[in-house]
Amino acid sequence: MSGRSGPPLGFAEALDLPLSVDLRTAARAFGICTATAYKLIRLGVFPCPVLRVGGRYRIPTAYLLRTLGIEERPVYAVPLDDEAPAARPHDTHSRASEVSA
Fold first, then answer.
1. Using CA atoms, how far apart are residues 74 and 44, in angstroms rounded to an integer?
2. Is there a smaller number of Cβ atoms within 10 Å at the N or the C end of the chain?
3. What is the mean pLDDT of the chain?
4. Is 64 exposed, middle or buried (0-12, 13-18, 19+ CB in 10 A)?
5. pLDDT band of 101, cuts 50, 70, 90
6. Whose CA is closest to 55, among 27, 23, 29?
7. Quick check: 27 and 47 in contact, CB under 8 A?
8. Which strands sit side by side in the sheet containing 51-53, from one edge to the other?
């Protein structure tokens, strides 16, 4: 059994995170298991600030992204395909009418 909490967090997934995340998600972002994350918190050396809310740990996403070296959010979280131009709203409607005809 692997100690990891799941597959590593992808770039697009990281940019879709809420304002704060649980410790398991933060551990995935850093590529460590949850047990190691708890140990780092106990030692006071977790890579970014951690909040204790009730009996749970929460990590503000802004600090998490900054620690990962993501300072600014791009306009698009997924890469745009250079070969296929983006569909325009009026193109979608014309295609839909062509299909139904």
1. 32
2. N
3. 77
4. buried
5. very low
6. 23
7. no
8. 20-22, 56-60, 51-53
